[in-house]
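note to self — DONT lose this again. spent like an hour looking for the file last time. sequence + predicted structure for the chain T wanted, 316 res
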Amino acid sequence: MDHGGHGMTMDLPPFTLGRALEYSPDLFFLIGCLLALALYGVGVLRLRRRGDEWSVGRTVAFVTGVLTVALVMCTGLNDYGMVMFSAHMIQHMVISMVSPILLLLGAPVTLALRALPVAGQGRKGPRELLLAVLHSRYVRIVTHPAFTIPLFIASLYGLYFTPLFDFLMGSKAGHIAMMVHFLAVGLIFFWPIMGVDPGPHRPNHLMRMLELFAGMPFHAFFGIALMMASEPMVAAYRTPPVSLGIDALTDQNAAGGIAWAFSEIPSVLVLLALVYQWYRSEQRQAKRSDRAAERDGDKELAEYNAYLASLQARSQ
């Protein structure tokens, strides 16, 4: 593979799944993925050593989320993404729509709060700093729907339909920054909706569903716009290398189809997660009510029965 001055692949053979899955690491994301797995593993081990439980499901979700980032950034798909709009769109959709959901289901912030030691009296350690960030005005702003939904939409239209995309694609650092941005926007958007970590905004489950569906139509419209365009809309992909044997407009239409499809798939995943969380919440509430009834001898039910008896006595 021939790499240009920025270390980016300029000449590639025709795209195949096997070539796309070949190991071709981006050093920044490789180190980031390994570091994330290591820190999460240390946290889980610390809990286990002191006898605390940590959900295997959460661990599996987080590890899978990290692996999805590695899949799109540390394989040949990242090389093809520099010259093929469709390959780039797979990267974008996975790292902004799939990876964040899985990472959030892993509850990394909750794990950190439980694993980090409490600082001494009058001192501030990593745990206290993390709590301060969670309760800061900045986090309240960036996790509010009035911020997250416009940011989610602007990350599509404001990036691809302006010269900013071509500017970022012009350097390795710009490309990395763009992918980090996609991941960050996904995390910020989905955190208040279905994240299990503590946060400043935790609306009821119905409102979370409304927040989810408020952003998804714009995602679908973006994909449809690419599919229906009569000419290439992004300068970076107007002249694909001859070695790929592809047409720029056909490749753009494929990219639009990928964007449209991904507006549906994560919605279903998040909806299922929300329904499950709602069910678990109701189950916990029912258990709390049962325990309260056992403690007070079902006082509430006795008072209700007494009220019914008083009504019957008055009617006689």
